[in-house]
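S., here's the first fold you wanted:
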Amino acid sequence: GSTSVREITRLERIGAHSHIRGLGLDDALEPRSGGSQGMVGQMAARRAVGVIFRMIKEGKIGGRAILIAGKPGTGKTAIAMGLAQELGEDTPFTTLSGSEVFSLEMSKTEALTQALRRSIGVRILEETEVIEGEVVEIMVDTLAGKGGSEKSGRLTLCTTEMETVYDLGSKMIDALTKEKVTAGDVITIDKASGRISKLGRSFSRSRDYDAMGAQTRFVQCPEGELQKRKEMVHTVSLHEIDVINSRQQGFLALFAGDTGEIKGEVRDQIDTKVADWREEGRATIVPGVLFIDEVHMLDMECFSFLNRALESDMAPVLVIATNRGIAKIRGTDYKSPHGIPLDLLDRLMIVSTTSYTTDETRKILSVRCEEEDVEMADDALELLTRIGMETSLRYVIHMIIAASLVAERRKCSQVEIEDIKRVYTLFVDVKRSTQYLMEYQSEFMFNELDNGGDIEEDSGSDEDDDDVHNSDDNEEKEVSKIDESEKSSMEEG
């Protein structure tokens, strides 16, 4: 019979910013051109964030706030994601949306406090005594007695310089069996807890078997003495320490996500303990980054809380982003730049983003095509770029995968101009949608232009008939000012 070989590929979700691998900067913090690490354009903003990245890495910055401000679709979130990728896994990076604060089942200040403490890491140093060596031989004896069988055994470990035999109890034998330790494995035994870790297989035993599994790791036989003092480093966030100490099932609450509100007394005790560890040299603080997107959604209470939180000794770097201009501060009638109070704006280092040029838009689209694994013809990419310049970058990015599916339906591996045109007619952008609404607004429910007079009539009191007549007259005057084309379309509706 015939056999078919099918290639198995790893399934990965492609997100809006999954192509971002970093800020695309060289060693001198100058932005590289040509879509380095997925970043295109925004040279000044990337250079500014690069300086902030270097300061965070060197631990010279804390309690600072940076505002990334710009029009929609100019790469504000992409720059923040690039900063997160550059910092790596060791530096805590917490992402929060402004509206999330109000939707959680806890007070606004508690939600912000938890987010701030998630962004502060504590690197705990711990010295432990370990036995590390290559297993030469394991001997297990089972003695049958009245109370049942008892296990005892001997473990022979060696390094390049020495060899020692250890007597084993039943618990250690069970641990060795559980880890599937055999002769030739390199293991470490923690003397304090008795925990056994298998590091890999010794190179000297690499020829024992003709075939090995893909997961088999080969390591060198340890040198020096068997017993060593090792320095272990654990990095945890302050929020994780809070959760573990705040309730009886605290450790499980970390996985369940149901942390609830944490008392201030618990946090004060933890801060005191961490301060003691820092003085003893057992712990170091890793100030991370808290990124709040759509920050204009926060209200006055949240802004005043952030103002106070930034003055704390253990404050992370706050990066906030907004696309608003002069806007009302939520919950007030006051207007201010970006919808942020002026006292907080004074504290911010503001980085602005600019609109993308045609060449930058083309490069972004080619990077996205590569990320989404879509083959696109040059003329189709050119058309997509033109559409992007006239509509918006987000609209054309969404068109890529849709055009790919249309091309697939034609049994074509490459996206052509006709596929782009087809998708352009199927999905309308904001401008065309608005134009359609203007033409056919009388057919839609609750449209402002048609029912404005009715609303005014309902709101007026029934007793003042003269007022009602006056409002009707005013309404007729307003309607007469409308263009003839709109008037005729309203009458048709």
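And the second, which I think is the more interesting of the pair:
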Amino acid sequence: MADAQARVEQSVKTLVTDIERDYVRKMQARMFKCSAACCDDSSADMDEVGRCIDRCSQPLSRSQQLVTNELNEFQERLQRCARTCQDEVQDKMKAGNTNQAELTAVMEKCIGRCADTHLSLIPDIKSRLVKNLQAQMHQ
């Protein structure tokens, strides 16, 4: 099970690192430049500057929420799969199987399948994120 968890964690970490490096940083730079321009406007009053800064931060905020939502959905799906594995083991126990080694093997195999299934989703998640982040960058 530790191997499956490590594979999923590494894949998600790589995804987040790529997204942060290739998109979020650029959006942060744009937001800071935009916000600085708001502050440079000496004719604007305090409220106008505040609204300007808020407008500058909206694309980044939406993008960060998008990434958070995708990762939360991925984690929820993975947790549901793991609960299914737990149910499978519990069903075997209720049927009278008390062989701990066998039950552990069933659990590990099932968790491995969950990891493999969910690892195969990462490219689609990245593709969706990239598409949406690119759209946010052009707003």
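Why I say that: The chain has a mean pLDDT of 93. The two ends are 43 Å apart (CA to CA).

Talk tomorrow,
H.
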